[in-house]
Design brief:
The complex is a heterodimer of chains A (about 425) and B (about 300).
Chain A: E1 2-9, H1 16-26, H2 32-44, H3 60-65, E2 72-77, E3 81-87, H4 95-103, E4 107-113, H5 120-131, E5 136-142, H6 151-166, E6 174-179, H7 203-208, H8 212-215, E7 222-229, E8 241-245, E9 251-252, E10 256-260, E11 264-273, E12 276-278, E13 280-281, E14 286-291, E15 302-305, E16 311-322, E17 333-338, E18 341-354, E19 361-362, E20 373-386, E21 397-401, E22 408-414
Parallel strand pairs in A: 1-3, 1-4, 4-5, 5-6
Antiparallel strand pairs in A: 2-3, 7-8, 7-15, 8-14, 9-13, 10-11, 10-15, 11-12, 11-14, 16-20, 16-22, 17-18, 17-21, 18-19, 18-20, 21-22
Helix pairs in contact in A: 4-5
Chain B: H1 7-25, E1 29-32, H2 37-50, E2 59-63, H3 69-82, E3 86-90, H4 91-96, H5 114-125, E4 129-131, E5 148-151, E6 179-182, H6 190-200, E7 211-218, E8 221-224, E9 239-245, E10 256-258, H7 264-273, H8 291-297
Parallel strand pairs in B: 1-2, 1-4, 2-3, 4-6
Antiparallel strand pairs in B: 5-6, 7-8, 7-9, 9-10
Helix pairs in contact in B: 1-2, 6-7
The chains are: A alpha+beta (about 425), B alpha/beta (about 300).
Amino acid sequence: MEVLKIATAGSVDDGKSTLIGRILYDTKSLTSDKLKAIEDKSEQLGYDYLDFSLATDGLMAEREQGITIDVAHIYFSTKKKSYIIADTPGHVEYTRNMVTGASTSQASIVLIDARKGVIEQTNRHFFINNLLRIKDVVVAINKMDLVDYSEEVYNKIKADFTELMSKRDYQDQKITFIPVSALKGDNVVNKTDKMPWYKGEALLEHLEQLDKADIFNSGTPRFPVQYVIRPKTEEFHDYRGYAGKVYGGDLSVGDDIIVLPSKTRSKIKDIYFYDEKYETASRRSSVTITLENDINVSRGDMIVKENDLPTIDKQFTANVCWMDSNQLTPGGKYIVQHGVNKVLAKVDRINHKINPDYSGFEKNVTGLNINDIASVSFKLNKPIFYDQFKNHRTNGSFIIIDPQSNNTVGAGFIQ
Amino acid sequence: MKKDTSHINSLENEAIYIMREVAAQFEKPVLLFSGGKDSITLVRLAVKAFYPAKVPFPLLHIDTGHNFPETIEFRDRLCKELGLELIVRNVQDSIDEGKVKEESGRYASRNMLQTTTLLDALEEFKFDAAIGGARRDEEKARAKERIFSVRDDFGQWDEKNQRPELFDMLNGAIDHGQNVRVFPISNWTELDVWSYIEKENIEIPSIYFAHKRKVFLRDGMIWSAEDGVVYRDENEEVIEKMVRFRTVGDMSCTAAVYSDAVSISKVVEEIRDSTISERGARIDDKRSEGAMEKRKQQGYF
C-alpha cells in the first residue's frame, strides 16, 4: 500500500471542503461520532442537506465564516492506497498556503464551479500547480447538478482550461478533466448515471490507478547530511555515521562518492537503518551511512555520486513565492535554507514579476508583496549545492527566513 | 534494499527525519512522554533515529496524579530498559502551590491543569523544543497543526500565524524564550500507530488490551469505577465488563470501550472496523465545538 499526498485548490464557494467531505462519506471514512456532529450542526444551522465542509474546517473562525483559512490535513484510506489531502484555501491572500500544500503533494485537484467557469483564480491555482511541477492534476468541474449536467458547459470549461495549459512552462503535466457534483456525490467516489456523455473515471477511481511513475519525479541521488552520529561507546568506538534522507535516486554500498563542499572522495562502506545493514538505500529513506575513509563531514554537507555533481555556486536565480507582509526588496538580507543547509543571502535583483492575472511579466519591479511570484536573483555568503527545480524537486527548492522575525517568509524554486 | 514503498515505512522515514532535525536544530529538546501508545511510538522512533548512539534528549512526563497505575509502572520500566533519562513533574505540586485550582463536580478533570505544569517545566529546564505525539487525524484543530509549531513566551499557539512548511524543510529558528512543539507523527493515523506497534513488536501498557474492569455508565460512555478518581453518583451502578482503553489520558476524562481484543492483532482488527473515532471517548474534547483549539491557544500540547 502506498501513500498519495494530494493538494486541493479552488476559489471560495467552489465546494472544496464539500468535495473532501463527500469523499470521506462515500469511502465510509467518517466515524459515526463525527458524522453525528455534522448532522447535528447542519440541522442546527437549518440546512436541508448535510454540510460536509463541517468535517474539515477545523478552526472556530472558519466555522463562523464558513471558509477555510489554513491548510488542513485529512486522512483516509482505501484497499489500494492511503491518502493525505492537504485542503488549502482559495482566497487570493492565501496563495502561500496553496504553495505550501502543493509542495508536499504528488497530485492535485483544481476545482472549478461549473456555473462560473475558468476565472482568474483558476489561473492562479493552475499556475502554482505548474510552477511546483505537480505531475498529475485533476480538474474537477463541480456543481454539475446546477447546470443540468450539461455536456456543453463541461466542454466549454475544458476548452478554456486547455487554452491556459498551452501557455505553461511544464508541458508534460498530465491533466484530467472530470465533471462532478460534490453535493450529490456524482463522479466523486462512484460513477453517476446522470452524465452518460462522460466516458472517463470517477475522481477516486482516477487517483486509485495512479502509480509511482505517474506521481514521482525522478532525479539523481542527493544525500544532505542531517546529523553526525558518534556513539563514543566501547562497542562503537570509531563509529562515525552520517544520518540523512536520500533524495532523487538510490545509493548503494561501494558507490564512489564526493563530499561537498570539501570535494573529498570516498566510497560508501555501510548503509544502516537502525541496527540492520542494507546494500542499497532507496529514495526517501532515512538511513545512516558510513564511509571508507575517515574524513571530516558535518551537517549541511552533501554526499553525491562522483560522476553526478550538482551546481556548486554562490549565486542563483529562482522563482520566488513571497509570503510575508513586509516587502522583499533588492539589497534585502535573509537566510536561505536549502534542505538542511542555512546560508546568508542578499537579494541581488528582482528580474520580473508574474502579473496577478498570470497573463505575463512585469519588469522594473521595486519590491515584492505578500503572495507575489517573481524571478529573483540571490547572492550567498558561501556556496550551496543545488540542481534546477525542474530536474530535482528537493534539491532545487529552498525557503527564505527573515533573520529578524525568524519566520519563513518565502519559498523558491531554482531556475 | 532499504525501501520506502510501504505506507508505514514512509511514515517512519519521515518521523526519523524530524527527530534528527530536532536534535540538530535545538539546544535543549525534550520528548513529552505520557505513557500512551503515541509517545511510546515516539520513543521507538527516537531510538531508531540515533542508533547506535543514545537518544540525545530526556523524556518529560507531566503526571496528573490521575494516571492509570499500569501506565506509570510501564513508564519506569521502559526508561530503565532503554537507559533513558526521565523527568517527572506533578500537577499536584502546581495545585499545592496555588498556581491552578482543582475542578469539581461530575466532569472534574486535571487535564486542563496539565498545561500550567508543562509550561513551568519547560521554563525550569529551559527546553527549547518539546516533541509530542499529537496526530493531525485526532481532532480538527490538530489537523491544522504544523510539524514545527512555534509557541511564544506564554506557550501559546497562534493558529492564524503559523509558519508555512514546504517540502521537507523545517524552520526551527526561534528567539530566546520561545519554544517549538514538534510533532513527528503528525501524518500518522490511529491505525498507522497500531500497525507500527504490531510490526515493530513494541510493548505497551496492559490497559490497551481487553480486560475485566469495574465500570459504570454515564452519557453512553463507560467509566472506570476502580481507583476512585472518576466522580461517581451513588445511583450510578458499578458493573464488571470486558473493556479496553483506546487512549490513556487522565483517568478522569478517558472512557473505556467494550472489547474482546486481547492481542495487538485483535486491536488492529478492531480499530480497522471501528465506527467511532479515537477521541470519541475523550470527554475533554466534548466540552464545546472548539474545545481543543481553545486549549491549544493556552499552551496545551
